[in-house]
Amino acid sequence: xxxxxxxxxxxxxxxxxxxxxxxxxxxxxxxxxxxxxxxxxxxxxxxxxxxxxxxxxxxxxxxxxxxxxxxxxxxxxxxxxxxxxxxxxxxxxxxxxxxxxxxxxxxxxxxxxxxxxxxxxxxxxxxxxxxxxxxxxxxxxxxxxxxxxxxxxxxxxxxxxxxxxxxxxxxxxxxxxxxxxxxxxxxxxxxxxxxxxxxxxxxxxxxxxxxxxxxxxxxxxxxxxxxxxxxxxxxxxxxxxxxxxxxxxxxxxxxxxxxxxxxxxxxxxxxxxxxxxxxxxxxxxxxxxxxxxxxxxxxxxxxxxxxxxxxxxxxxxxxxxxxxxxxxxxxxxxxxxxxxxxxxxxxxxxxxxxxxxxxxxxxxxxxxxxxxxxxxxxxxxxxxxxxxxxxxxxxxxxxxxxxxxxxxxxxxxxxxxxxxxxxxxxxxxxxxxxxxxxxxxxxxxxxxxxxxxxxxxxxxxxxxxxxxxxxx
Length: 472
Known about the structure:
It comes from Halopseudomonas pachastrellae. With 472 residues, this protein is of the alpha/beta class. The protein folds into 2 domains: 24-191 and 354-449, Alpha/Beta hydrolase fold, catalytic domain (Rossmann fold, 3-Layer(aba) Sandwich), CATH 3.40.50.1820; 194-338, no CATH class. It has 14 helices and 14 strands. The strands form 4 sheets. The chain has an 8-stranded mixed sheet with strand order 2-3-6-4-7-8-13-14, with helices on both faces. Strands 1-5 form a two-stranded parallel ribbon. Strand 9 (224-228) and strand 10 (233-238) form a beta hairpin. The longest helix is centred in the N-terminal third of the chain and has 23 residues, at 119-141.
């Protein structure tokens, strides 16, 4: 999970900064194959090895169906792997893997040569692997495959950011290893707005709880005591800020489903507006441990934990609202005037002459079929990213090449096997000249707020969620 305040949004100037060293540049990562490697599926051959990436060595994984002769390659881009120097083998979800192989495609994945939120290394290392995996397998295994006749890319979370950015025009032009991807399937994808969201919500919480005059660096202290449970750090002892806004469970932990008073209710409403507006499953996702994870990103300086040299976060133009009418109320105007405002450094994330930006932008400027999925309750990487993607695609005139699907699930990248299978099959058919798949409307607030929104492409039932009135 992301930690530290990953906040920011803008693109920066048109030239790289003067020679300076980011914290990321001094980190030395280790690429080692595990003692036990995943087995090939029936009817396939699987390969693993080490190759030279952007920041150092990276690990590759490749699986090829029997009889494959360059029929097509899908690059898998994995999500955020944490703040650790050891690089991990990247393997896609089982349902994704099966769908790709059953369609006759090979797949390949890179560990990337760096962890932290290094989407730049993700693009460059993935592209280099796509272009060279045939040589790597020959060098390591003595087997020679035909180079692919078609390249595709798909991933989740930060990997979704990488997959979406990889087909965006700016990154196609800036990458050191141009790959002519014929399509992309970014799922639950993050992008540059992710860092804006994390900074916005945590700063709003400080203000609305009555602690807006405190320095933002005190955020975690005011939020409470976090306890590491392996998969996530949760607040087990609420601090004064959280205590002012939420009631507690019997064990003393914060009850995210029980906001206190007007301030607590307004925070929930602001969060709903910031993450995509009124929609099914939002309140359920809001009350999950994703809340703790989002709060755990608060308080740092907007350089994305050393990925940037300068702060990418700015909120000077953001209007925070807990109502949905055409204009802010007097109370909302007063709240916005009292909130601390900061500006992003225009040189935080510049264009570079040695590859893509440190944080590659997703501008919605693509000319190949793109199919996405996103869960409605995801409070960590919110559904709002899909709305921004649609708006940018429309601004670039390529909205007909974007299909988006809303999934009724409360967590992050919480897709069923059936959802992966349907999405991959429909996307591959479309990429290869078949019918354009159906998708969901994401911008019409009336459509998104309907109780049955997301029913069309949700496969399987999740316990505790409201059922669709008419199951698809």
